[in-house]
Each structure stands twice: as C-alpha cells, then as structure tokens.
Amino acid sequence: MHGREKTKEGSSLVPGCTSMEEKPGQPAPEETPSNAPPGTVGRELFGYVGIEAVLDQMRIKTMKTGFEFNIMVVGQSGLGKSTMVNTLFKSKVSRKPTGPGYEERIPQTMQLQSVTHVIVEKGVKMKLTVTDTPGFGDQINNENCWDPIVKYIKEQYEKYLREEILISRKRKIPDTRVHSCVYFVPPTGHWLRPLDLEFMRRLSKIVNVVPVIAKADTLTLEERAEFKQRIQEDLKAHGINVYPQEDLDDDSDDRLLNKKIRDKIPFAVVGADTEHQVNGKRVLGRRTKWGIIEVENPAHCEFPLLRDLLIRSHLQDLKDVTHNVHYESYRVQRLNESNQLAPSPAAGLLGKHEMESNL
Amino acid sequence: MAAAEIARQVGESCRTVPLSGHVGFDSLPDQLVNKSVNHGFCFNILCVGETGLGKSTLMDTLFNTKFEGEPASHSQPGVQLKSSTYDLQESNVNLKLTIVGTVGFGDQINKEDSYKPIVEFIDAQFEAYLQEELKIKRVLHNFHDARIHACLYFIAPTGHSLKSLDLVTMKKLDSKVNIIPIIAKSDAISKSELTKFKIKITSELVSNGVQIYQFPTDDESVAEINGTMNAHLPFAVIGSTEELKIGNKMMKARQYPWGTVQVENEAHCDFVKLREMLIRVNMEDLREQTHTRHYELYRRCKLEEMGFKDTDPDSKPFSLQETYEAKRNEFLGELQKKEEEMRQMFVQRVKEKEAELKEAEKELHEKFDRLKKLHQDEKKKLEDKKKSLDDEVNAFKQRKTAAELLQSQAQQAGGSQTLKREKERKNSGFL
C-alpha cells in the first residue's frame, strides 16, 4: 500500500526551528501558517507521521463492503426511461417491453416496480436498485398520481427509521431509500406542464429530483436552449429546488461547480443501447435515415453530463444529501407526529433522564 | 384515485449483471474519500498508566510533534482525566486528535476506585453521542465525535507480571474500548526478560478473560502484517523527543553512558510496530470497532435499562406507539404522584407557619392589652394626684383672698390693733 511504502523520513531539523510541515517527497521543508480554528491548538508536524494512510484504509474498507444506490425513474410511458437506465449502467438492468407479440398495454393502475442488480467494475461492487413507475401520468384523470410515489419514498424512510431505532441494530442498516429521482420531461418545446410542475414541487421536498428532457433528438439545438431556459424560469418561479440544491452548497468550490450544473439543468438526453459503426468505432447510438445520433457525444446530446453527474462525480453526494437532509427532515416530522400521541424515545428518554437527574 | 400497487421484484437472487462498457462508478471510493477529506477526521486516544511511565513523551514521539503540558505530580488525591485536542495536518488530511491522559493513576494508597473515573469518562462520551443521536433535530454529520477510539494501556516494566491494578482496570475497560497494552520504558528490560515478560502478560490476560484489541485479519491486504503484529503484542516501546546524531543522521534516541537506544530501530524496541499498527494500518478499523461494537453495546444496555424493548415476552414486536403510550402513562403517573406529595408537603408547611403566626399574634395582643392597662392605671393615679394638688391650690387661693380681704378691712377700720389682732388671729388660725 502506498502509505506504508513511504520511507520514514527523519526530520532534518535545525534545533530551534519549530514551524515545519513536511510533505513526503519534498526535501526542503516549507513554512506554512497554521489556520486552526479557535478553541483547539494547531500543531505542526516535525516529520512524516503517516496520518494520510487513513485514506487508503478507508478506501479498502469501502471497496470491501460495497455500495448501494437506489434510483427512481418517473415519466410517462414511451419517454425512454428503461432505455435510459440501461444506457446509464451499460447493462440490461431494466427489462423493457420489446419483442414481437408483446402488446404494450397501458396499465389501469400505476405500479411501482423495483429491480435490484449487483454490478461490479474494477473491484467496486454496487448494488443498484432501479424503481420504475409505469403508468405514471397515463390516465385521463391524473390527479394524485404522485401519491403512490410519495408513499413509496416515505415507506423507505420509515423502514430505515425503524431499523435505526431498534435496540439491537444491525451492523449495516440496509439502505433502500431512494437516492435520486430522475424525472423525464416530454420534449414539447414549450413549457412545463401542470403535471410536471405539481409533481416536481411535491417531490423535490422529499427526494433529490433530477429533471431531464427525454427524447431530445426531436429538438434542434436552438429549440433545446429555449426550452431549457423556459424550464429553468418555470422552476424558479414556482420555487422548486431540484438537485443540486442551492442552499446546500458548502464552500465556494462546490458553489462554482454546482452553478455550472444548474445552468445546464435539465439535461437533454437521448438513450440508446444498440451499437453502430461510426468512423470505424463502435458507439452507442440511434440510427436514423438522416444520420446517427451518438449518445456519448457531447455535441449531440447531454447524456455524458447526466452520467457524470449521477455516477462519476455526485453519486456519493446524492446519497449524503438523502441521508443528511431528506431523511433527517422526515425523521423530525415523524418523531414530532408521534409526540402528539406519545413521546418518542428521544423525548421520552430525555425527559425521563431529566426527571431522574433532578430527583 | 389511482390505486397503487407496489410490486417488488427483488429476489434473494440478486443477479450480477455484466457491464458492456465503462460506466464510471469505480470512482466511488474516491468520491467517498474526497468527501471525508473535506470533512476531516477525528481520532481520540486514551492513555492509561501510572504517573511517570512516559505517556506524554510517547504521544509526542508518535505524532512527531510537541504537545504542551508539564509532567504531573504524584500527590493527586484521586484519578482525574485531562483531555486536550489538537489539529494536525498532513498533506491534505486534517486530523482532529484528542489525547486524554490519566492524572494520578496508581498514586493513591487505596487504589480500589482508580478505574472508576476512567470508566465514567468513557461512558460520558458514549452518552453524549447517544443523546445527540436520539434528539429529534440532530446534526450527526457535524457532531464532534469524542468517543475514545483506542486506549493505550501502559504497563510498568517490572519484568515479572501484571499488577493487580492493571488487571482490574483492563477487565473493566475491555468491553468499552479497544485496549492496546504496551510495555512502557522498555529500555529497562533486557531482551531475554522481555520475551518472558510478554509471554507472562499475554497468558495472564487470557486466563483472566481480558479482551484486548486484535488487529483485523480478514482483509487480505493487511491480514498478513496484522497477523504477525498480533503475535508481538504487547508492544515494548520507548519514547523520546530528543534527537541525537547517530552515524550521519539525526535520530530520536536516548543516550546512556553504556550506549544509545534508538527509538525507530526495530531491534531496539517495538515503537515502529506500534506506529504502523495504530496509525498507518488500523486507524479506520479502530474507529469502526468503536462505533459498531462498543458504542452499540453501550446503547443497547442503556436503552434496555430505560425500559425500551424490541419485543415483548411473547416475542411479538412491540409497536412503537404501544411502547411510547405505556412509557408515557408510567411517566405521567409518576409525575402525578410526585406532584401530590409535593402539594401535601406544601400544605403541611403552610399550616404550620400559619399556626406559628397565630401564636405570635396572640402574644402580641396580650402584651398590648397589658401595657394599655398599665398605662391607664398610671394615668388615673396621676389624675388623682393632680386633682388633690388642684384642691390644695384652690384652698390656698381662697385663704389668700380671704386674708387679703380682712387685711384691707382691718386697714380701713382700725389701725395696727386690729392688724395685731388679725395677726394673732391669723397666727392662731394657722397654728
């Protein structure tokens, strides 16, 4: 491991010289000011200690335990949700209705279907759960069609909460909470429909919502830009906070990065899982009479951006926001509710504690 | 309206799906590590050992820096724990290190209660974390975790066996914290004595059922090194912050007339092994064990003590509401009882006070009456006296006017004879 292979450098100090922070590999010690917060005493290290080996330890540990990721795709049928998921994870995680003889019937009631798979890449194991929502927004009267989804999301939080409250808890609580919800907006080119607005408004409060423009190959680049602009204005006008949420930016680096992303939301994506030959390379794309749309070409569509956001750069952040923000607010709400009927273990324990300590 | 049916097609048969291209989530561990780096790490070490065994020096040597603090005196009345927090930074890793030392351990004449402050301190840290976790509005990811991750137990280099104080303390601590026993000031023991000493210590620990921290051997990359290190426990260490020139390098060492002991020489002492194990290989595991084993055990015991159960005697899971309802009623009942008691007491006190006050009032009234009577008597006496005096004055006045009248008559009617006669009469009248 790279931590242990470093030689222990004896500090070549001149006695009397105290503020040293030696980086391994750098022969000349540098003087750096310590910016310790008030209250704790900052200490400069005189030589290499090996604290940074903890990063490697952590890496090994997480590779061993594996990761869990739960994604939900919502949108009307025919917008290419299952194809998108398959393209994202480069495998057939979502079984979509294809093949001759299969009649695509719009289900009378909306059902949520969850499928779990394990995918491994370079030693990293990930348990991926994709929740699909066929039948969303397909009825004539779509009032309250978001209710089953909201109920499902809250059920996962409830499950986690119950596990967390147990006296003898499992070492690793299974995490079935939805980490991100990808909402597919039909490419009308005009504005967001009332259904979209209503849905996103309700859901952005309990889960990370990532809106995307589906089947974007029907829009030209200018139409795309206009559509996006209007959608962004709509979202802002209605106060809908999609991921990445503005008020959760920690520092200026984050803010810059997230601002770039926020300018591009919603991503205009195209999904494809068949490969074609382009310039001698095999690429994923859709072949039409007038050309081949390459899915992974940033000039053609914004699928790479979506993939990078969801997987390569912000996956851990999605999980953290779900755990630290959405789950916590659900927990607060739930514990306050049960307070009206009976005290929660929190209030009960704290209250009893105070009683005992006062008497 | 639209009824929902949630169909879950998760099986125990979670099949592994092959990938047909590079997805990119192999950067997940890196994402996680970056987040942790931004967040910072914290590590808390507890050093338990008698005064003068070199605990502070060893900490200085381990972390290659000079922590402040003067050596403690030997005349402490009881064991106290002194904790200090430092911010260390190495390349891009920020470590918040808390070092807790025992002051006065083993110095008292009666050492029966020496372990208690230590156990209480460890429990207090767990309690703080538990309280935060149970709060309704909690901030767990920004909470300063003060739970002790590793306890370095310093054994005095007698060369024979463990002291009974050591055994008792370690037994009390082994279920609460990861104990790593080390032999301090091991330059006082020769090599042959050292091997015998180590064997004796390990056998004593085993025979007394003390569970010390074993380095994990389940992960292949560290299994080998951890396995060999486990055999070297307890580590015999020497601490020194002085640098001496040996050969052409500056090294940490201790100089004696008969030779120089180098701290970082593996042939001289096990300091390097300790540093490897504690910091470079197992820091994360120590933190994880503390959280998943020791803290969970504490939490379970604490919650059960408070009466919360997961399942009732019929092993049917208690619903949360039922438990809370029961707890609440119990709690309210207790409250009411206490309220009654207090009210009774209060009423009692009020009555007593009232009676007292009434008594006092009565007394005062009596006094008042008495005094008034006295006053009246006095007044009467004085009035009588005044009256008699007045009478006398009046009588005198009358006689005076009568005398004057006669005198004037006598002067008018006769000469001095009448006057003489009047005088005689007056005199006889007076006599």
From TrEMBL, chain A:
One GO CC annotation: cytoskeleton
Predominant subcellular localization, coarse grouping: cytoplasm
InterPro entries the record matches: G_SEPTIN_dom, P-loop_NTPase, Septin
GO MF term set: GTP binding
Entries under Gene3D superfamilies matching the protein: P-loop containing nucleotide triphosphate hydrolases (3.40.50.300)
Any one GO BP annotation for this protein: cell division
Region of interest (Disordered), ranges: 1-41
Keyword Zinc among UniProt keywords: no
Pfam families named among the record's database cross-references: Septin
Keywords: Cell cycle, Cell division, Cytoplasm, Cytoskeleton, GTP-binding, Nucleotide-binding
Domain spans labelled Septin-type G: 65-337
Annotated compartments: Cytoplasm, Cytoskeleton
KW Glycoprotein (keyword) present: no
PANTHER family: SEPTIN (PTHR18884)
Similarity section: Belongs to the TRAFAC class TrmE-Era-EngA-EngB-Septin-like GTPase superfamily. Septin GTPase family.
Name this protein carries in UniProt: Septin
Organism expressing this protein natively: Pelusios castaneus (West African mud turtle)
Automatic annotation (TrEMBL), chain B:
Region annotation (Disordered) ranges: 404-431
Residue ranges the record marks as coiled coil: 321-399
GO MF annotation list: GTP binding
Keywords assigned: Coiled coil, GTP-binding, Nucleotide-binding
Stored Pfam families: Septin
Entry-linked InterPro entries: G_SEPTIN_dom (IPR030379), P-loop_NTPase (IPR027417), Septin (IPR016491)
Record PROSITE patterns: G_SEPTIN
Basic and acidic residues compositional bias, start-end: 419-431
Ranges of biased composition (kind: Low complexity): 405-417
Limits of the Septin-type G domain: 39-305
SUPFAM superfamilies registered for this protein in UniProt: P-loop containing nucleoside triphosphate hydrolases
Family assignment from sequence similarity: Belongs to the TRAFAC class TrmE-Era-EngA-EngB-Septin-like GTPase superfamily. Septin GTPase family.
Classification via PANTHER family: SEPTIN (PTHR18884)
Protein's name in the database: Septin
Protein species of origin: Pelusios castaneus (West African mud turtle)
Biological classification of the source: Eukaryota, Metazoa, Chordata, Craniata, Vertebrata
